[in-house]
Amino acid sequence: MRRLVAPLGLLLALVLCLPGLAGSASALPGVEASDTGNGSAQGTDPYWPLDGNGGTDAQHYDVRVRYDFASGRLRGRTAITMRATADLRSFSLDLLLPTTAVKVDGRRARFRRVGKHELRVVPKAPIAAGASFRVVVRYAGKPGAYRYAGERNWLASGTEVVAMNQPHMAPWWFPSNDHPSDKATFDVRVTVPKGKQVVGNGVRVGRTVRRGMATTHWRMSDPMATYLAFFAAGRYVIDQGTTATGIPFYNAVSRGLEPKLRGFVRGQLARSGAITDWLQTKLGPYPFATTGGLVTGLDVGFALENQSRPTYGGWIYPGVIVHELAHQWFGDSVAVQRWRDIWLNEGFATYMEAVYAAEHGGPSLVAYLDRAYDKQCTSPATDFWRLDIADPGADHIFDGAVYDRGAMVLAALRNRITPVHFDTLLQTWVAAHHDGNATVEQFEALAEQVSGEQLDGFFNAWLRSGTVPAQNNADNGLAGVFCG
């Protein structure tokens, strides 16, 4: 995710930036004691204890929804292939919309609501640990009427809808184990009036029209975190082709934008192919089958790294495209294991903005770090330095320090272990954890392995100490940095 505000002057001459910010969320209370343990409605992440569920591992989602623009009502049928990680007499899914029917392996199952966010399912027969099973949930409601964790995430008008948000989005439109640690593959079919177009993750499989309604099928064949799954429906200008290295791209720009702005953002979005190719030279092969992006006409105060196809508002510029496409490696292919690991997403994507700027007329990475440090080092008591960005807390995962100080950590690490070792570190990281999940501690361990150096002091100073890393200390990657 990229907030609307620009990081530490990084935009320079990279055009257009409007003010604003993204929201944060707070945790909900835990569930009742009878729902804890294997098969529970409670996940393992203390930031949002109700995200994800115990006892199950999602393998594949087959999501089929029909959306009515006039009423704002969504009707869905989602089939989930799951594996039991424990003996189950019941299990839970995350869903806000009212449920009308549930089947497990073709047999009707009992179900009940646990609070507003959890769907408790009791199959006809217990499920043994290690067994695969298929649960089909039918549901319907108005997503715009629901809140969770302080968020009202449904974005829609009478002419356009887009299911994009972070850290939560899935429960507004399909049942799931809604946590990044439980990734799965996806087939998504969306039915809307035939005059509308539908855009989603991955590859468009096909579109069928019947009685004035069109169903569009999108497929994501790589494992994906649930919050990254999206669909948008409306009227769009579509541009398709391949990048210089042969990666197919699919770009969509809302016709709801006024013509002059629409032309501008279409030109900006057209940079996605070249930026994807450039990122490959830094990070290794692009991790998915297709790239591109969508610009919505709805009022959105952030951009988001939806897997293979980031989503943007009408404020789009090269830096934010770099940021969201860098997330395809950092955040999508290599997802966080816990929300506390968010620095591995946002700090890394922000760092790639600095790298792109350095190679396209902006300050060098050394100058970038000097300027960023000089701007902040005179204010040691601010939250910019106090925040532990390796464990920022649920209310602070999108604070500026996670992004901008996070990027500074990497620039300083590059100084500390040499650019050659640092480049090897990033490429090894994304290759080792491709299609998986990882933690901050794993990154620290790999940095020591690649560099052959002990780096506890460096990471503690930059990530956790709550104070300004010592100036003119080579161990902190700041030798020669000027402050004041």
From TrEMBL:
Domain Peptidase M1 membrane alanine aminopeptidase: 319-462
Entry keyword annotation includes Ribonucleoprotein: no
Protein name (Swiss-Prot/TrEMBL): Aminopeptidase N
Biological process terms in GO annotation: proteolysis
Domain of life: Bacteria
Positions of the Aminopeptidase N-like N-terminal domain: 59-228
PANTHER family the record matches: PROTEASE M1 ZINC METALLOPROTEASE
GO MF terms held by the record: alanyl aminopeptidase activity; metallopeptidase activity; zinc ion binding
Organism, as annotated: Nocardioides kongjuensis
Names of required cofactors: Zn(2+)
EC number, UniProt record: 3.4.11.2
Pfam families registered for this protein in UniProt: Peptidase_M1, Peptidase_M1_N
Enzyme class: hydrolase
InterPro entries named among the record's database cross-references: Aminopeptidase_N-like_N, Aminopeptidase_N-like_N_sf, Peptidase_M1, Peptidase_M1_aminopeptidases, Peptidase_M1_dom, Peptidase_M4/M1_CTD_sf
Keyword list, A-Z: Aminopeptidase, Hydrolase, Metal-binding, Metalloprotease, Protease, Signal, Zinc
Signal sequence extent: 1-27
Record SUPFAM superfamilies: Leukotriene A4 hydrolase N-terminal domain, Metalloproteases ('zincins'), catalytic domain
Family membership noted in the UniProt record: Belongs to the peptidase M1 family.
Chemical reaction(s) catalysed: Release of an N-terminal amino acid, Xaa-|-Yaa- from a peptide, amide or arylamide. Xaa is preferably Ala, but may be most amino acids including Pro (slow action). When a terminal hydrophobic residue is followed by a prolyl residue, the two may be released as an intact Xaa-Pro dipeptide
